[in-house]
Amino acid sequence: IKAPIIKYVFAEYAKGTPMRDIIKELDRRDVRSARGGKLTHTTFSRALVNPTYIGKPKFNGQVVEGVAEPLI
To answer: How confident is the model at residue 11, as a pLDDT?
Structure first.
């Protein structure tokens, strides 16, 4: 999933839009997962807790500080 989509997802979710409605909209736009599949509740849940999006990527299970700008 690309950065504008992640920003959209977080903004909508923060507004209280249900996940299923966000997924339906992204499906309508033909947005696919990183592996090319349809977005699912699981894909979504993982994205919402991915520390990379707040600028804290992990490498070998450790958070690496200062190497990525937060998307959200």
So the answer is: 93
Return the amino acid letter for 38: K
Residue 49 to residue 51: CA distance in whole angstroms: 6
Q: Has this prediction a pTM greater than 0.85?
A: no
Residue 33, phi then psi, degrees to nearest 5:
-70, 175
Backbone angles phi, psi at 59, to 5 degrees: -135, 125
DSSP-derived secondary structure letter, 50: -
pLDDT tens-digit readout, 13-50: 999 999 999 999 999 999 998 888 988 888 888 888 88
Sign of CA dihedral 59, 62, 68, 72: positive
